[in-house]
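Per reviewer request, we include the raw input and output of the structure prediction for the construct analysed in the revised manuscript.
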Amino acid sequence: PPPLLEHAGNRLAWKALKAGMGPKADPRFNPLYLWGKEGVGKTFLVRSLLFGPGRESGVYFKALDFMEDLAHARRKAGGLSSFRERILGTRVLVVDEVHRFRGKPAAQAELVHLLKVLLSRGARVVFLGRYAPREIRRVDRSLVSILLSGFSVEIQVPGESARLEALLALEKEAGPPFLPPFLLQELARRHKRGFGPLREAWLGLRQSGIRPSRAEEAEELLAKVTGGEDTLDRILGRVAVHFGLTPEDLFSERRSRNVSLARQVAAYVALERGFSLGAVAERLGGRSRSTVSYMRKRIDGARKLDPSLDRLLEDLV
């Protein structure tokens, strides 16, 4: 994992988490809502500080896991009671990716019910998400009200000095052969995203096996590992055009045969090009990693039976 670093972009969130811990926890920081772009280290920070060695145990849920477990519990005799008991028995609840509850009124209602009980008992509740509370669309007012009732803080993308510090820590942990210092400095300068994507770019440099001695020699290598977002959008754009669609169609909830096939092809090509399951899932409208993995398997099987699809994939990849 990336190193746990306190920096200007997460310092307030760090202090808020610390202030809400232990027997003298400050009630002003409960509930706590941390939000920010993908890869800024929200989940890693919370799990490290709240659930690290010596910390009290708690319950951690990603929104999609919560909804899947809830659906399963409702189908099983006594399942809903067990589901609720598990959550209501904790002193610390972390709900990650809270923005994914959008458009899911039944799951939102269950979550709100559980949150009200937990907060009335003095349990610690931490939310994580990508957007400010009022910017989360299609979420019930009661849930937004709970998000706003405590303390909300944005975690910013780490600055260049923090990015370089993270890269140096990763290098130290990985051991030789080390990347040239100038290459790490240039990666930290160019890669203006979070620690997660930064680590992926660093891995790309390490795995390339190339150790350039001059900045000029490193240009192509750096361009390859720092151009992920634009390249992913270009892949989705090419697939959309081929199927007579727009990229927005791929991100949408539309399920027509043409849109579904295009979405699966886009996921397959992006994964074949080396993008992570998480990056592809998020770009395709916030779908789950398991869904994207399933898309890949579907296309992998279909291309063996369809020569025209196989040729298309060869061209796109």
